[in-house]
Amino acid sequence: MKTEFRNLRKLRPGGERMWSLDPSQKEVLRFAVSCRILTLMLQYYAYTQFCLPGSAHSVPEPLVQLAVDKGYRITGGNEPPWCSWGLPLVYSYIQDVYWNVGFLRYYELRQVPNFLLATPVAVLVVWAAWTYVTTHPWLCLTLGLRRSKDSKKTLEKPHPGFLSPKVFVYLVHAAGLLLFGSLCMHVQVLTRLLCSSTPVVYWFPAHLLQNQEPLLRSVDTVPEKLLEKNSPPGQKAPRNCIMKLLYNWRACSPVTRCILGYFLTYWLLGLLLHCNFLPWT
């Protein structure tokens, strides 16, 4: 009886199951829950080590000396202030005290190079948001909850690709990450944050290339003779679109040159500097 009642609760009036998830959504949900559980376990372990008397493990002498030299707090001493917080989170305390992470704390004159490093990806997200908002003003104004009467016609033939109404939620997520990262984080990690957290950073450049690059607008506008002429000697014209653009660099539009130049330069410099333990993000 209980089993049948549970099954009925999962069914809609039409007979379809509610909250049905496909395998990819289940995998994402499982990964998110696992990350949250691991984070809570770390917070609990730190609480037992620093806040509960008699729970701390002994620390080797070299690590104790390192903590003294660096000014770090070790277990067994005075209770740190975060233990008395309503929500005792050690990670928030570390960011505040040791990393100087906070609202507008990074806005210093000596951090100008780091702001310049994060400028391209910030401009890319702002440009993407402006393009989308000017294309769908009513959709953005109502947060996608209501549609105007004129939009009924556009629903029959919606915008493809980046300008699709389904992209709105991703754009809001990207804008939120940009705003939070610019105001409350070390801004040099902004590129890493956006490139690993939102697909807008990749969708919008692809949108620009498709709309503003003559070599990619259609197959008819890409003469094979031109591609073979500009290809290296002894090699056929590549089928990969990026390689075609690189082989025809002089014929590319300025937007294409900026996009490819930025991504390739960032990849190459990041590979060289990071592998040699030099500052890079």
Automatic annotation (TrEMBL):
<dbReference type="GO" id="GO:0005789">
    <property type="term" value="C:endoplasmic reticulum membrane"/>
</dbReference>
<keyword id="KW-0808">Transferase</keyword>
<comment type="pathway">
    <text>Glycolipid biosynthesis; glycosylphosphatidylinositol-anchor biosynthesis.</text>
</comment>
<keyword id="KW-0328">Glycosyltransferase</keyword>
<protein>
    <recommendedName>
        <fullName>GPI mannosyltransferase 2</fullName>
        <ecNumber>2.4.1.-</ecNumber>
    </recommendedName>
</protein>
<dbReference type="InterPro" id="IPR007315">
    <property type="entry name" value="PIG-V/Gpi18"/>
</dbReference>
<keyword id="KW-0337">GPI-anchor biosynthesis</keyword>
<comment type="function">
    <text>Mannosyltransferase involved in glycosylphosphatidylinositol-anchor biosynthesis.</text>
</comment>
<dbReference type="GO" id="GO:0004376">
    <property type="term" value="F:GPI mannosyltransferase activity"/>
</dbReference>
<dbReference type="GO" id="GO:0031501">
    <property type="term" value="C:mannosyltransferase complex"/>
</dbReference>
<feature type="transmembrane region" description="Helical">
    <location>
        <begin position="259"/>
        <end position="280"/>
    </location>
</feature>
<keyword id="KW-0256">Endoplasmic reticulum</keyword>
<feature type="transmembrane region" description="Helical">
    <location>
        <begin position="167"/>
        <end position="187"/>
    </location>
</feature>
<keyword id="KW-0812">Transmembrane</keyword>
<dbReference type="GO" id="GO:0006506">
    <property type="term" value="P:GPI anchor biosynthetic process"/>
</dbReference>
<comment type="similarity">
    <text>Belongs to the PIGV family.</text>
</comment>
<feature type="transmembrane region" description="Helical">
    <location>
        <begin position="115"/>
        <end position="133"/>
    </location>
</feature>
<keyword id="KW-0472">Membrane</keyword>
<keyword id="KW-1133">Transmembrane helix</keyword>
<dbReference type="GO" id="GO:0000009">
    <property type="term" value="F:alpha-1,6-mannosyltransferase activity"/>
</dbReference>
<dbReference type="Pfam" id="PF04188">
    <property type="entry name" value="Mannosyl_trans2"/>
</dbReference>
